[in-house]
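Backbone-to-sequence.
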């Protein structure tokens, strides 16, 4: 570094900088100019949201960690083919999702490159994968930014009852991306979306094979992730356990059939496949999508919804769960496959949050209980779990008169949940 100031690169850049005006550069970008650039890169729609927006309060810290210069987040919308997504043949649907997902990343990379070439610092976040898998997975979220929250904050749509963003024109047949830039954006904003495109037709409820979407508004995260994401993170961990713990081919095949093994191979080779995503497939919302539903609702249900409902397939559930009971009642022609929960928490905070995701409302019918947890050691935490009216509430500290009190070393409890420790011999 002794000759740093005389290095050719340093001398050249200093010379170029000396030619620039001494006035402060304009850090605000014209909205129309940048929107045109984005559309030319292949996006079907786009919107902008300031990093200071309250809608990004729970996103801001991670965005700034990944890109400290961030001033604006750009929401990128790319359409999917509704007819491919609606096919009962999931290979067709997954191929479309994989193809458009790659397209979203390519569009975002191209946008960031062109902005960088124009002297504007920009960084694209991955559409989905790769994600951030840390030592605390699954307690820490693996994505940097929630594209759904950015899209809603940028006026690109609203969340439907199926927890997907519905664009006013394209419906939920979209995939999302985000590009973060160092500049603010000026000019007339897009018209505020003052209504929710969701029709509340409840076809997503009717089509979901595991009953994850409740008419009362509750979303059963555990049911959805166990089945639809079977060949993603949790299912892969489950498969590794099956391979390592099986002492013969026959014992392995008791856990994974040949069909399941080949299906997982396909996901590992060509990209993880969704088992359902039927909630997206049957959604009729959106100006470009709704006409067939308006013209002939019975015909729409017969053509789009019933083939998914009547499809004979394996449904992955946790034994004793709401999903297990739901499939038996609503879809007796579908085959139940019981699997475990492989995404075990690594921290007590993760355990407490995870209870809200794993909670099964129907299984708690008629139960009112208060549980006190006192954890010692590495994590010293007191917490209360309250079950009432088929709802679970987690409170900090010890609240109320408990029906059960549990005191445990925090690390021992985590090992117990991961089936690495028997509490009775700990």
């Amino acid at each position: 570094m002794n000759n740093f100031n005389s290095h050719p690169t340093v001398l050249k850049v200093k010379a170029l900088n000396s030619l620039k005006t001494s006035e402060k550069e304009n850090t605000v970008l014209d909205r129309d100019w940048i929107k045109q650039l984005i559309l030319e890169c292949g996006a079907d729609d786009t919107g902008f949201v300031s990093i200071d927006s309250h809608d990004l309060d729970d996103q801001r810290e991670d965005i700034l960690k990944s890109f400290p210069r961030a001033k604006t987040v750009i929401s990128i919308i790319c359409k999917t083919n509704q007819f491919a997504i609606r096919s009962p043949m999931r290979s067709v649907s997954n191929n479309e999702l994989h193809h458009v997902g790659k397209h979203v990343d390519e569009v975002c990379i191209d946008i960031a490159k062109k902005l960088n070439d124009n002297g504007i610092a920009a960084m694209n976040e991955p559409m989905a994968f790769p994600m951030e898998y840390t030592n605390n997975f699954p307690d820490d979220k693996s994505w940097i930014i929630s594209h759904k929250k950015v899209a809603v904050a940028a006026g690109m749509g609203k969340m439907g009852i199926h927890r997907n963003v519905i664009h006013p024109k394209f419906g939920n047949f979209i995939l999302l991306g985000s590009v973060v830039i160092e500049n603010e954006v000026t000019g007339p904003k897009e018209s505020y979306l003052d209504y929710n495109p969701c029709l509340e037709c409840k076809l997503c409820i009717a089509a979901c094979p595991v009953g994850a979407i409740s008419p009362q508004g509750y979303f059963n995260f555990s049911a959805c992730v166990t089945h639809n994401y079977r060949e993603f993170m949790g299912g892969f961990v489950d498969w590794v356990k099956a391979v390592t713990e099986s002492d013969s081919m026959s014992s392995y095949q008791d856990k994974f059939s040949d069909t399941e093994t080949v299906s997982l191979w396909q996901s590992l080779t060509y990209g993880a496949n969704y088992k359902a995503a039927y909630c997206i497939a049957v959604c009729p919302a959106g100006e470009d999508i709704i006409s067939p539903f308006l013209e002939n609702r019975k015909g729409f249900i017969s053509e789009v919804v019933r083939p998914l409902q009547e499809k004979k397939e394996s449904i992955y559930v946790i034994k004793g769960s709401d999903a297990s009971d739901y499939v038996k009642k609503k879809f007796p022609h579908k085959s139940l496959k019981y699997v475990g929960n492989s995404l075990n928490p690594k921290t007590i905070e993760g355990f407490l949050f995870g209870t809200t995701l794993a909670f099964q409302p129907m299984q708690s019918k008629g139960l009112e209980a208060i549980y006190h947890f006192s954890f010692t050691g590495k994590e010293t935490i007191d917490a209360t779990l309250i079950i009432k009216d088929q709802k679970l509430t987690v409170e900090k500290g010890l609240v109320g008169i408990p029906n059960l009190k549990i005191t445990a070393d925090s690390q021992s409890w985590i090992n117990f949940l991961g089936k690495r420790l028997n509490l009775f011999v700990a």
